[in-house]
Design goal:
By secondary structure, this protein is mostly beta strands. Helices cover 12% and strands 42% of the residues. The protein has one helix and six strands. A hairpin with a 7-residue loop joins strand 1 and strand 2.
Length: 101
């Protein structure tokens, strides 16, 4: 089993809803804590939705995410000098076993 970061984006078809991007799965990690540590080093402070008190600008979007899976995190990402709320999920993926011929 490996852990991956999966970006969550606003839905293009429904206002106020979000979509977990299945086509943007990050590098696999054997340990969830190591993945979160790496994410934090890259973007700064992470807030776990439903666990941490969220600062102004981040919303608890759980329940508004199509195909929601795993733990959901929010952070502020720089976009041309403007800080924007960004979200991602931690998803678990079972590795397929292969048979040696």
């Amino acid at each position: 089993m490996t852990y991956h970061e999966s970006r969550i984006d606003p839905s293009h078809s429904t206002d106020g809803e979000w979509v977990q991007n299945q086509h943007d799965i990050g590098e696999g990690w054997a340990d969830e804590d190591n993945l979160l540590s790496e994410c934090s080093q890259n973007v700064g402070r992470l807030y776990e939705l439903g666990v941490d008190e969220l600062p102004d600008g981040l919303e608890d979007i759980r329940g508004s995410i199509h195909n929601q899976a795993g733990r959901i995190f929010g952070y502020f990402g720089d976009s041309g000098g403007e800080l924007l709320a960004r979200y991602f999920a931690i998803v678990e993926i079972e590795e397929e076993e292969t048979e040696d011929d």
